[in-house]
Amino acid sequence: MFNTLRSRLLAISRPVTLALAGALLTLNVAAILYGVFARYIAGGAPIWTDEISRFLIIATVMLAAGAVWSEGGHMRVGLLEKLLPTPFARLLNVYQWLLTLLIAAGGAWVSYRYALSVNMFTTSGLGISRTVPLLSLPVGFLLLAWHALLYGPAPLKTVEDSLHKTVEDSP
């Protein structure tokens, strides 16, 4: 029952975070296109277009990182897992999972503390507190920890797994 709940939460959480990341990416493209239009056609772009584009791309990557990790989409070398005997491969998977949780939780804590420490400074283009855009870092690290926690210490998916599934699903 616990595994079913975990897999359901993961099945809901992944598409939601990827949809949010996609929405931010769409906003980013719109801001860039507006900046290009304003600069080359209207004669001058506002300074905020470059700044918001930078903040949106960072937020997009941070939001998508956990979902992409749980889908096995990050670049990694899985050869060692295949060469090791099964008990050692399981131990390696647990180690990788714990390390991911530790790094994600640590990244969330450090980036949250840093985001709060710069609240007295404002951004040059948008004129908002630097804390606002920097909060995407702890949120992204927390989502990575959340997805890793839900995924558990199981082996991460590989490209070969996706290819085998595609072949099996075809008629």
Automatic annotation (TrEMBL):
Chief localisation class: membrane
Keyword DNA repair: no
Subcellular localization: Cell inner membrane
InterPro entries: DctQ, TRAP_DctQ
Pfam families listed in its UniProt record: DctQ (PF04290)
GO molecular function, one term: transmembrane transporter activity
GO BP term, pick one: C4-dicarboxylate transport
Topology relative to the membrane: Multi-pass membrane protein
Residue ranges of domain Tripartite ATP-independent periplasmic transporters DctQ component in the record: 29-149
GO cellular component term, pick one: plasma membrane
Alphabetical UniProt keywords: Cell inner membrane, Cell membrane, Membrane, Transmembrane, Transmembrane helix, Transport
Segments traversing the membrane: 16-40, 52-70, 91-112, 132-152
Protein's job: Part of the tripartite ATP-independent periplasmic (TRAP) transport system.
Subunit structure: The complex comprises the extracytoplasmic solute receptor protein and the two transmembrane proteins.
Record-stated family: Belongs to the TRAP transporter small permease family.
Protein name per UniProt: TRAP transporter small permease protein
Species this chain originates from: Vreelandella sulfidaeris
Lineage: Bacteria, Pseudomonadati, Pseudomonadota, Gammaproteobacteria, Oceanospirillales
